Amino acid sequence: MSFNLKTQIQPPVIIVGLARSGVAAKKLLLASGFQEKDILTFDENKPDAQFKTEADLYALTDVKTAVISPGVPLQKKYIQKWRDQGVVTTSEINLALSQVTTEKIIGITGSLGKSTTTSVIGAGIQTFDPNVFVGGNLGIPFCEYALSVHKDPSKKAQWIVLELSSYQLENVEKLSVDYSLVTFLSPNHLERYNSLSDYYETKWTLLNRTKNKMLLNENGGDLKFFTQNKNSEKLVWSTAGSAQLLSYNLDKAELIGKHNQDNLAMAAQLGVECGFPAWWFITPPGKPWIKKEYYFY
To answer: Where do the domains of the chain lie, and which CATH numbers do they carry?
Structure first.
Protein backbone atom coordinates (compact mmCIF):
# COMPACT_ATOMS: atom_id res chain seq x y z
CA MET A 1 0.00 0.00 0.00
CA SER A 2 3.02 2.27 0.43
CA PHE A 3 3.44 4.98 -2.19
CA ASN A 4 5.26 8.26 -2.69
CA LEU A 5 3.02 11.22 -1.93
CA LYS A 6 5.13 13.49 -4.12
CA THR A 7 4.39 11.34 -7.17
CA GLN A 8 0.74 10.63 -6.32
CA ILE A 9 -0.46 14.04 -5.12
CA GLN A 10 -0.35 16.95 -7.54
CA PRO A 11 -0.09 20.50 -6.13
CA PRO A 12 -1.52 22.94 -5.47
CA VAL A 13 -3.29 20.99 -2.70
CA ILE A 14 -6.13 22.44 -0.66
CA ILE A 15 -6.98 21.03 2.75
CA VAL A 16 -10.67 21.52 3.45
CA GLY A 17 -11.09 21.51 7.22
CA LEU A 18 -8.35 22.34 9.73
CA ALA A 19 -9.42 20.23 12.68
CA ARG A 20 -6.89 17.76 14.05
CA SER A 21 -6.97 15.47 10.99
CA GLY A 22 -6.52 18.38 8.59
CA VAL A 23 -3.55 19.69 10.54
CA ALA A 24 -2.02 16.20 10.59
CA ALA A 25 -2.54 15.86 6.84
CA LYS A 26 -0.71 19.13 6.23
CA LYS A 27 2.19 18.06 8.45
CA LEU A 28 2.53 14.80 6.53
CA LEU A 29 2.52 16.61 3.19
CA LEU A 30 5.23 18.97 4.39
CA ALA A 31 7.31 16.08 5.73
CA SER A 32 6.92 14.34 2.35
CA GLY A 33 8.53 17.21 0.49
CA PHE A 34 5.72 19.62 -0.31
CA GLN A 35 6.35 23.32 0.26
CA GLU A 36 4.11 25.69 2.21
CA LYS A 37 3.27 27.44 -1.07
CA ASP A 38 1.95 24.12 -2.45
CA ILE A 39 -0.69 23.82 0.29
CA LEU A 40 -3.83 25.94 0.63
CA THR A 41 -6.23 25.70 3.58
CA PHE A 42 -9.92 26.28 4.21
CA ASP A 43 -11.81 26.43 7.48
CA GLU A 44 -14.66 28.77 8.37
CA ASN A 45 -13.65 28.78 12.04
CA LYS A 46 -9.84 28.90 11.95
CA PRO A 47 -8.24 32.36 11.78
CA ASP A 48 -5.08 31.01 10.13
CA ALA A 49 -6.96 29.37 7.23
CA GLN A 50 -6.34 31.06 3.87
CA PHE A 51 -9.95 30.61 2.75
CA LYS A 52 -12.93 31.07 5.05
CA THR A 53 -16.07 30.96 2.88
CA GLU A 54 -17.50 28.41 0.51
CA ALA A 55 -17.88 31.18 -2.06
CA ASP A 56 -14.09 31.51 -2.03
CA LEU A 57 -13.75 27.81 -2.72
CA TYR A 58 -16.28 27.86 -5.53
CA ALA A 59 -14.28 30.62 -7.22
CA LEU A 60 -10.99 28.75 -6.78
CA THR A 61 -9.61 27.46 -10.09
CA ASP A 62 -5.90 26.79 -9.52
CA VAL A 63 -6.09 23.63 -7.38
CA LYS A 64 -5.22 20.08 -8.43
CA THR A 65 -5.89 18.04 -5.29
CA ALA A 66 -8.35 18.51 -2.43
CA VAL A 67 -8.00 16.77 0.93
CA ILE A 68 -11.58 16.80 2.23
CA SER A 69 -12.47 16.53 5.91
CA PRO A 70 -14.98 13.69 6.53
CA GLY A 71 -17.26 16.26 8.14
CA VAL A 72 -17.69 18.04 4.79
CA PRO A 73 -20.32 16.42 2.50
CA LEU A 74 -18.94 15.50 -0.89
CA GLN A 75 -22.18 16.84 -2.39
CA LYS A 76 -21.06 20.42 -1.74
CA LYS A 77 -21.34 22.48 -4.93
CA TYR A 78 -17.71 23.56 -4.89
CA ILE A 79 -16.56 19.94 -4.54
CA GLN A 80 -18.78 18.87 -7.43
CA LYS A 81 -17.36 21.72 -9.50
CA TRP A 82 -13.80 20.70 -8.64
CA ARG A 83 -14.47 17.13 -9.65
CA ASP A 84 -15.97 18.25 -12.94
CA GLN A 85 -12.76 20.21 -13.53
CA GLY A 86 -10.60 17.16 -12.84
CA VAL A 87 -9.52 18.01 -9.31
CA VAL A 88 -8.62 14.84 -7.39
CA THR A 89 -10.52 14.60 -4.10
CA THR A 90 -8.90 12.55 -1.38
CA SER A 91 -8.80 12.26 2.41
CA GLU A 92 -6.50 12.29 5.40
CA ILE A 93 -6.82 8.48 5.59
CA ASN A 94 -5.72 8.08 1.97
CA LEU A 95 -2.66 10.25 2.63
CA ALA A 96 -1.71 8.21 5.70
CA LEU A 97 -1.80 4.99 3.69
CA SER A 98 1.24 6.27 1.81
CA GLN A 99 3.36 5.17 4.77
CA VAL A 100 1.74 1.75 5.34
CA THR A 101 3.88 -1.20 4.23
CA THR A 102 3.65 -4.45 6.19
CA GLU A 103 1.15 -3.37 8.85
CA LYS A 104 -2.12 -5.25 9.06
CA ILE A 105 -5.24 -3.12 9.33
CA ILE A 106 -8.48 -3.73 11.22
CA GLY A 107 -11.39 -1.48 10.23
CA ILE A 108 -14.35 -1.02 12.57
CA THR A 109 -17.62 0.71 11.74
CA GLY A 110 -21.17 0.79 13.06
CA SER A 111 -23.86 3.17 14.25
CA LEU A 112 -23.17 2.31 17.90
CA GLY A 113 -20.42 0.57 19.83
CA LYS A 114 -17.56 1.13 17.40
CA SER A 115 -15.51 3.35 19.72
CA THR A 116 -15.71 0.92 22.63
CA THR A 117 -14.89 -2.03 20.38
CA THR A 118 -12.00 -0.18 18.75
CA SER A 119 -10.55 0.76 22.15
CA VAL A 120 -10.90 -2.77 23.53
CA ILE A 121 -9.20 -4.32 20.49
CA GLY A 122 -6.43 -1.73 20.50
CA ALA A 123 -5.71 -2.20 24.20
CA GLY A 124 -5.62 -5.97 23.72
CA ILE A 125 -3.23 -5.85 20.78
CA GLN A 126 -0.94 -3.53 22.75
CA THR A 127 -0.12 -6.50 25.00
CA PHE A 128 1.91 -8.03 22.15
CA ASP A 129 2.41 -5.07 19.77
CA PRO A 130 3.44 -2.00 21.78
CA ASN A 131 3.49 0.12 18.60
CA VAL A 132 -0.12 -0.64 17.68
CA PHE A 133 -1.92 2.41 16.32
CA VAL A 134 -5.51 2.99 17.42
CA GLY A 135 -7.34 5.92 15.88
CA GLY A 136 -9.23 7.19 12.88
CA ASN A 137 -12.65 8.50 13.85
CA LEU A 138 -11.85 7.71 17.48
CA GLY A 139 -9.78 10.85 17.83
CA ILE A 140 -6.19 10.33 16.72
CA PRO A 141 -5.80 11.03 12.99
CA PHE A 142 -4.22 8.26 10.94
CA CYS A 143 -1.76 10.82 9.52
CA GLU A 144 -0.25 11.25 12.98
CA TYR A 145 0.80 7.60 12.87
CA ALA A 146 2.05 7.98 9.29
CA LEU A 147 4.10 11.02 10.26
CA SER A 148 5.68 9.25 13.23
CA VAL A 149 6.69 6.30 11.05
CA HIS A 150 7.98 8.64 8.34
CA LYS A 151 10.27 10.27 10.92
CA ASP A 152 11.20 7.08 12.79
CA PRO A 153 10.62 3.69 11.07
CA SER A 154 11.20 1.89 14.38
CA LYS A 155 7.73 3.08 15.43
CA LYS A 156 6.06 0.95 12.78
CA ALA A 157 3.19 -1.13 14.14
CA GLN A 158 2.31 -4.72 13.38
CA TRP A 159 -1.37 -3.80 13.63
CA ILE A 160 -3.42 -0.68 12.92
CA VAL A 161 -6.92 -0.41 14.39
CA LEU A 162 -9.12 2.18 12.68
CA GLU A 163 -12.54 3.33 13.74
CA LEU A 164 -14.27 4.33 10.50
CA SER A 165 -17.36 6.50 10.29
CA SER A 166 -19.69 6.40 7.30
CA TYR A 167 -18.37 9.87 6.41
CA GLN A 168 -14.83 8.53 6.24
CA LEU A 169 -15.88 5.50 4.19
CA GLU A 170 -17.21 7.82 1.47
CA ASN A 171 -13.69 8.92 0.56
CA VAL A 172 -11.11 6.17 1.19
CA GLU A 173 -10.22 4.99 -2.31
CA LYS A 174 -6.87 3.51 -1.26
CA LEU A 175 -8.08 1.76 1.89
CA SER A 176 -7.80 -2.01 2.16
CA VAL A 177 -8.18 -3.74 5.53
CA ASP A 178 -7.20 -7.22 6.61
CA TYR A 179 -10.18 -7.68 8.94
CA SER A 180 -13.29 -5.62 9.58
CA LEU A 181 -16.13 -5.41 12.07
CA VAL A 182 -19.65 -3.95 11.92
CA THR A 183 -20.92 -3.42 15.45
CA PHE A 184 -24.47 -2.16 14.95
CA LEU A 185 -26.81 -0.62 12.38
CA SER A 186 -29.51 1.88 13.33
CA PRO A 187 -30.74 5.19 11.85
CA ASN A 188 -28.14 7.93 12.05
CA HIS A 189 -26.80 10.87 10.04
CA LEU A 190 -29.91 10.92 7.85
CA GLU A 191 -29.41 14.64 7.25
CA ARG A 192 -26.44 13.63 5.07
CA TYR A 193 -27.92 10.64 3.21
CA ASN A 194 -30.82 10.35 0.80
CA SER A 195 -32.26 7.40 2.71
CA LEU A 196 -31.58 4.95 5.51
CA SER A 197 -30.56 2.44 2.87
CA ASP A 198 -27.91 4.83 1.52
CA TYR A 199 -26.47 5.20 5.01
CA TYR A 200 -26.34 1.43 5.59
CA GLU A 201 -24.87 0.78 2.14
CA THR A 202 -22.11 3.29 2.84
CA LYS A 203 -21.19 1.32 5.96
CA TRP A 204 -21.34 -1.88 3.94
CA THR A 205 -18.71 -0.68 1.44
CA LEU A 206 -16.20 -1.81 4.05
CA LEU A 207 -16.85 -5.43 3.01
CA ASN A 208 -15.34 -4.87 -0.43
CA ARG A 209 -12.28 -3.35 1.23
CA THR A 210 -11.81 -6.39 3.48
CA LYS A 211 -9.28 -9.06 2.51
CA ASN A 212 -10.16 -11.74 5.05
CA LYS A 213 -13.11 -11.87 7.45
CA MET A 214 -15.76 -9.31 8.36
CA LEU A 215 -17.26 -9.84 11.81
CA LEU A 216 -20.91 -8.94 12.41
CA ASN A 217 -22.67 -8.49 15.74
CA GLU A 218 -25.48 -11.01 16.19
CA ASN A 219 -27.30 -8.36 18.26
CA GLY A 220 -26.46 -5.51 15.92
CA GLY A 221 -29.80 -3.71 15.56
CA ASP A 222 -30.82 -3.70 11.89
CA LEU A 223 -27.73 -5.66 10.88
CA LYS A 224 -29.49 -9.04 10.57
CA PHE A 225 -32.29 -7.63 8.46
CA PHE A 226 -29.99 -5.54 6.28
CA THR A 227 -27.69 -8.47 5.48
CA GLN A 228 -30.33 -11.14 4.89
CA ASN A 229 -29.69 -11.15 1.13
CA LYS A 230 -26.00 -10.23 1.30
CA ASN A 231 -24.03 -13.43 1.05
CA SER A 232 -20.26 -13.59 1.35
CA GLU A 233 -17.77 -16.17 2.56
CA LYS A 234 -16.08 -13.34 4.45
CA LEU A 235 -18.94 -12.90 6.93
CA VAL A 236 -18.66 -14.24 10.48
CA TRP A 237 -21.39 -13.64 13.06
CA SER A 238 -20.32 -12.91 16.62
CA THR A 239 -22.29 -13.54 19.82
CA ALA A 240 -21.34 -13.43 23.49
CA GLY A 241 -22.88 -16.87 24.04
CA SER A 242 -20.62 -18.62 21.55
CA ALA A 243 -19.02 -21.80 22.90
CA GLN A 244 -15.84 -20.71 21.11
CA LEU A 245 -15.57 -17.75 23.48
CA LEU A 246 -16.37 -19.39 26.82
CA SER A 247 -12.72 -19.41 27.91
CA TYR A 248 -12.69 -15.61 27.77
CA ASN A 249 -15.14 -15.32 30.70
CA LEU A 250 -16.62 -12.19 29.17
CA ASP A 251 -19.28 -11.95 31.87
CA LYS A 252 -16.55 -11.12 34.41
CA ALA A 253 -15.35 -8.02 32.59
CA GLU A 254 -15.68 -4.62 34.26
CA LEU A 255 -17.59 -3.20 31.29
CA ILE A 256 -21.22 -3.58 32.27
CA GLY A 257 -24.32 -3.94 30.09
CA LYS A 258 -25.44 -6.48 27.52
CA HIS A 259 -24.34 -4.21 24.69
CA ASN A 260 -20.79 -4.32 26.05
CA GLN A 261 -20.94 -8.11 26.19
CA ASP A 262 -21.58 -7.90 22.45
CA ASN A 263 -18.67 -5.48 21.98
CA LEU A 264 -16.34 -7.72 24.01
CA ALA A 265 -17.51 -10.77 22.06
CA MET A 266 -16.64 -9.10 18.78
CA ALA A 267 -13.17 -8.28 20.08
CA ALA A 268 -12.67 -11.83 21.36
CA GLN A 269 -13.93 -13.35 18.10
CA LEU A 270 -11.52 -11.15 16.17
CA GLY A 271 -8.68 -12.59 18.24
CA VAL A 272 -9.79 -16.08 17.25
CA GLU A 273 -9.95 -15.17 13.55
CA CYS A 274 -6.57 -13.40 13.61
CA GLY A 275 -4.81 -16.07 15.65
CA PHE A 276 -3.80 -13.66 18.39
CA PRO A 277 -1.95 -15.12 21.41
CA ALA A 278 -4.34 -16.84 23.79
CA TRP A 279 -3.43 -14.40 26.58
CA TRP A 280 -4.07 -11.21 24.57
CA PHE A 281 -7.49 -10.64 26.13
CA ILE A 282 -7.40 -12.20 29.62
CA THR A 283 -5.28 -12.03 32.75
CA PRO A 284 -3.83 -15.22 34.30
CA PRO A 285 -6.81 -15.71 36.67
CA GLY A 286 -9.03 -15.84 33.58
CA LYS A 287 -10.70 -12.48 34.03
CA PRO A 288 -10.80 -10.09 31.08
CA TRP A 289 -8.55 -7.15 31.89
CA ILE A 290 -10.80 -4.73 29.99
CA LYS A 291 -11.37 -1.71 32.22
CA LYS A 292 -14.12 0.85 32.50
CA GLU A 293 -12.00 3.48 30.76
CA TYR A 294 -12.60 1.69 27.46
CA TYR A 295 -16.31 2.42 27.64
CA PHE A 296 -17.52 4.79 24.90
CA TYR A 297 -20.95 3.34 24.08
So the answer is: 5-90 (3.40.50.720), 101-294 (3.40.1190.10)
